[in-house]
Amino acid sequence: MIEEIIKKAKKENKKVYVYAHKFPDGDAISSSRAVVEYLKSQGIDAQYVVTKGVQAFNQIVGSIPPTTSVENDGISIILDTSTVDYAENTLFKNSSPENTYVIDHHGKVNGAVCIEDELGLTSKNVLRDSNASSVCEILVNELEQEKINSQIANMLTLGLLTDTAKLKFLKSDTLQNLSKLIELGADYKRVLGFCTRKSNLREEVGIAQTLLKTKTFPIGDTFGMILSMDNSEVDELSRNFGVRSPQKKIFKMSDIKNCSFMCMLSENTPGEYNVELRSTPVYGNFNVLQLATSHGGGGHYNASGYTIRVEDCYSKTRLEESLQQESSGLYSSQATDLPQITLSEQDEELLQILDSTKRLTEGVTPEILARVDSLIKTGANYDYTFKTFKSFEKFMLKNEILSQIPARIYSQREPRVDISLSLQDINTLTKRYNINETEILSMIDIFSSINIASASITLPNGRKTSINRNGIITTDISQNKGDNTIEI
Ligand SMILES: [Mn+2]
């Protein structure tokens, strides 16, 4: 398709405009910038059109200035955007349907209306491939490889890594395509560095306080988690903690043992709930996209969402109840077998590779990716092996610890967090979450992904664990000698 666009742009002397979705993420930004750079290298005048300038990932993609108008009937390429409503802007409406193209990796489920339908495009102008992890992954094969330079390879790697949460979620050819990018000159380690952003303590405290309100309910042999926030709660999170669109924090609920369904509802505008849904290939693997689609939403098989209008203050409870019913219905009709507890030979080797490369973040080569790919294709369970599952109790304990950090600490520019737990705190926590002292101390690693100067947790018996800004953890139990506390 891109080659056809290049021919047309040259023949008809047209400019090419590239568009993507609002709140642009790594895939939207990098795929757009990669297409623009590719077209420019082929002598085409091309531009990524955003109405709000973009600074994110600028070390890889450069900074992107805002655009307010475009020439009439240029060529438009719309990337990573499943509906017109989801687009960052609609200046592509200045292009005729023949001159408008779509490349996307969002699935089109039975009868869903996608952007190509809304714009009346013919199928030859649409490249929709839900077997790809990202638009960047589609582009690895759509662009001519000998014309992909290392700058473009870096951009494509960035989108592939961000849309897969750093290879946590793979599609069938993702690792092979990543290998190609490394061979084309992508600096994997450098790009990976830009995908890891430390979060803000103030936001984390607000989210943790909210997550403590998470409810659970049984779904078959598993359980579901549901958290809803009405408009006043959403406002409070925004005002006091700077958290916007809190339903997007649903990823905080992932990788919890035996949890098959996660759901967050947030009333961002009064009378309207944004609903985010997740399921997992590991427990049940049922199709939440079907659930979202039945409410006019969209997304992916394991990750989807929709918006629903409500009439009164009882709506929150009713929404929760119906989501519990709908998810249980899907589970009973679709759930696949839960994974075996024993690991196969392939699982064992995969686990060894994942451990030695720190979850494919260190020493990654095309050979290692090829080996992992072949282990998956001969039956290793990547979804299960890659993740480290925590219990619901540990998830809640983490939220308890974060939520106790006072405003005078989280408001600091470079917070020093020193948490001293009293005997009563320990009693409450151990009783509520069935957890021991060592497990409480191990919670220090929550600070490794948060922007802090330092943090520590101290128990009444003097046991203490600390972490510095570089994520180095030290445990000090020396004060423990000689006293009468019993080590659990
Ligand atoms: Mn994407």
How would you describe what is shown here?
- The structure is a single chain.
- 38% of the residues lie in helices and 17% in strands.
- With 488 residues, the chain is an alpha/beta fold.
- It has four domains: 194 residues, inorganic pyrophosphatase (n-terminal core) (Alpha-Beta Complex), CATH 3.90.1640; 135 residues, Diaminopimelate Epimerase, Chain A, domain 1 (Roll); 36 residues, no CATH class; 69 residues, no CATH class.
- The strands form four sheets. It has a six-stranded mixed beta sheet with strand order 7-8-9-10-12-11. Strands 2-1-3-4-5 form a five-stranded parallel beta sheet, with helices on one face. The chain has a four-stranded mixed beta sheet with strand order 13-15-16-17.
- Helix 5 runs antiparallel to helix 6, helix 6 packs antiparallel against helix 7 and helix 9 packs across helix 16.
- The termini are far apart.
- The site of manganese (II) ion has 6 residues, from loops.
